[in-house]
Amino acid sequence: MNNKKHALLFAWLWLVSAVTLAQSVNVTGSVIDPTTREPLVGATIIAKGQATGRVTDNQGKFSIPANRKGPLTLRVSMVGYDSQTVSITDNAQPLTVLLNPATSQLNEVVVGASRVEERLVRAPVTIEKMDARSIRETPSATFYEGINNLKGVEMVTSGLTYRQINTRGFASTGNSRFLQLIDGVDNQPAGFGFSVGNMFGLSDLDAESVELVPGAASALYGPAAFNGALLMTSKDPFIYQGLSVQAKVGVNHLNDPNRNAGPTSPAVYNDHAIRYTKAFNNKLAFKLNASYMWGLDWFATDYTDVNQSTPSELRGSQNPARNALNIYGDEVVRTLPGAGQVSRTGYLEKDLTDYNVYSLKLNGALHYRITPKLEAIYTFNFAKGTANYTGSNRFSVNGFSLTQHRLELRGKQFFVRWYSNAEDSHDSYNTRSLGQQINRTWVRDLNGNVVTPDKADDTWFSRYAAAYGGTVPNVSGNDQTAARSFADQGRLLPGTSEFDAQKERLTAIQGLAGAGILSQTSMWHADGQYNLTSAFKNAAEVLVGGNFRQYSLFTNGTLFDDKGGRILYHEYGAFAQVSKAFLADKLKLTVSGRYDKNQNFAGYFTPRASAVFSATGRHHFRASYQTGFRNPTPSDQFIKLNVGPITILGGAPSNSAGMNVYENSYTAASVNQFGAGFGADVGRVGPQQALLNNKDKLQKANVPYIAPERVNSFEVGYRALLSNNLSVDANYYYGIYTNFILNTVVLRPGSPVLGQDGKPNAAAAQNILNGNVQAFQLYTNAPDKVSSQGATLGLTYRTPGGYQIGANGTWSAFNIRNADPNNVAAFNTPRFKTNVTLGHRNIAPNLGFNVAWHWQESFEWVSSFNALIPGTVPAYHLLDAQVNYRMPTLKTVVKLGATNLTNQYVVQAYGSPAVGGLYYLSLVFDQGLR
């Protein structure tokens, strides 16, 4: 009986499929440029009312299924061309659609500015867009790097696989003030608290568009969009079908003197990807993506001596207390009788980390159209890779993985979405801790016996003091070099089997006894949105939405204070937005507001109001008041990481209970002043008197526990088509920040910081000189208001001959006002930067090119990597270029390009690597097996 039922069911399904197929035909045609008569590759064809879409192939041709009932209307569009609507009654005849080149890109459609589709010119706030054509033709090695050419963007490179994006100041290598979404999904590892560039993102083959919303966007996107939001969209499998393959090979490290293989021996770079999609009868579609990139990372080789206790003129390689920026282990320092301050001999970063990096991305998606206007989506993403990341230390993010699941139900007026992110740190480790720990494995006492790690530092300094004091036979006294050589006897040398064995052992040990990092943190997120405009009979556009997020932290005590089990906490938010047009649609007013509540903090309301006035079809003025709000990240609250000379401590009150840090510590600035004064006096008056002369320079720290931060921002802008070929976009903003979340460094001595007289305690000052002190990097808030302002100007000109010329400039400024400069987050942004682009898609048949030049001014970089001490990032320029040749019959594009064509080794963040040129050749086969 059951077999009969199954047979009947199968027959019924086959019959329905046959009937459905019988009702459909394929409409075929081609899309061309009427001027050049060139076929247009990548034009989109949508069948109105049937949710059916396709893109043209490498010969400009398309084939789209359509229902036979009644006439059919197709909407044909392509970036850089005016859209066209075509009505057809005879499906059997092939079509030829002519698309006229657009005079500007101002009529593009964007979503990110208001969370609904709108013309770019009517967007209420500044927004930048990188469309499918820009992605395909970017001169950068990847589309993500190409975002740097948009105006207002700040990109910081920590390594070959990791770049960080920011807007409007306060840049960092780990930017938790900037939201990054891929198809609406936050792709941050929760343990990081920020997106790790595009390491866990889209491949170039699957990227359709990028929208950048600079500035405070919390009113619509929640706490993470404090400085802005980057919205990336992947290709729809119903529209972009078939097989696509990318093979990209290149070289980097040309003329790099830091390569062990020699400066004339370049390193090989590979980036390969494959994408396959297929749709069945416009109801069911799937998509599969895989990409793998590998290469030799850039080297961090800045050996500047940053020991603030040594006068600047005495710093350098001959300084006994040298603390080199990219040498680790030499942060361990003591003051020895007669010898003064001495540091341990450290190891170069390039001997501690693995510069062979890779990035693996796997993606699968299943789309099912329940009705033509209702679609169910499931996606799975898995990414794993290696990067060298500059945070409070340099970290080897080694084999780190992120697993994501997404379920979504999407209709014409709404969506409901759930997704989860789960990370695993695998073999990641702290390179600075590794250097310090290796230094504790080989130290011998004066009898030649290797001591245990807990005694290694004290023993090494004892050997040094004995040698310098002249009590060691056959070692010259009062000789710093001889004393160091004696103390270093038995030191493990990089490249030896003993060194490699200790490196492997210590990176596998997670926690204070080793250098390994454990993070198996996860989060899940649910959100939804509904457009109520039809319910109001189109009198106004009304949008509502909300979200709920749950964090689950687990590092087994190696990063967070979670030895007793997982740390769980949640946050939620809701928003509403109303837009209405007045004055015959010339004036558009938008008001929105959002309320957010984190389990550990008070709730906050963030409003936004904007107006767009279109004086004519060519001239559009905008003004807005925006607010930003950011909850402390999991790391801000709960991190408790001992990295040797400093312990990073989150600002939640429970996180520091019993540690006596907030209650008994000195500010780092006052300790530096004390050390400098002591160093200047000790040779003249002796150590005891020098201590008494300078101890009152020490200042007790008064650091509050952490709280959410806020910004109020005002913006005006102007978009216009000045002529048929020239467009302009300009804006100015001014922001006021309160409760800005920042890091501050304090030092806790072994003795009380204040004596009975209420003044700095001499015993605590002696603790500092003896090394009986522990530094802490605390997460807290700036108590005073600070402000920033800036402006951007962009011009785009299309010549009659088809050349596209673009130029944009950005000015940024920071005003500390009356705030304490020691308690304000680093602005880390150059005053001026600019981009100039030049391209032509058909300079000759099937031949195109694109060039982009970026320049930015020198500025000071402040981060916890160098204990919040400023370091200069010199001015630099980058030149990217590519030339491409299309082979339509082979459905292949050949692209020859270079990023940083002139091979200038530039540093984009103090302590990060010097980035040189990357030269590549790629072949992209597209839309096969359609």
From TrEMBL:
Gene3D superfamilies per record: Carboxypeptidase-like, regulatory domain, TonB-dependent receptor, beta-barrel domain, TonB-dependent receptor, plug domain
This protein's record includes keyword GTP-binding: no
Topology versus the membrane: Multi-pass membrane protein
Domain TonB-dependent receptor plug: 122-229
Signal among keywords: yes
Subcellular localization(s) per the UniProt record: Cell outer membrane
Keywords: Cell outer membrane, Membrane, Receptor, Signal, TonB box, Transmembrane, Transmembrane beta strand, Transport
Listed InterPro entries: Beta-barrel_TonB, Beta-barrel_TonB_sf, CarboxyPept-like_regulatory, Plug_dom, Plug_dom_sf, TonB-dep_rcpt-like
UniProt main location, coarse: membrane
Domain annotation TonB-dependent receptor-like beta-barrel: ranges: 380-901
Cross-referenced Pfam families: CarbopepD_reg_2 (PF13715), Plug (PF07715), TonB_dep_Rec_b-barrel (PF00593)
Residues of the signal peptide: 1-22
Record-stated family: Belongs to the TonB-dependent receptor family.
UniProt protein name: TonB-dependent receptor
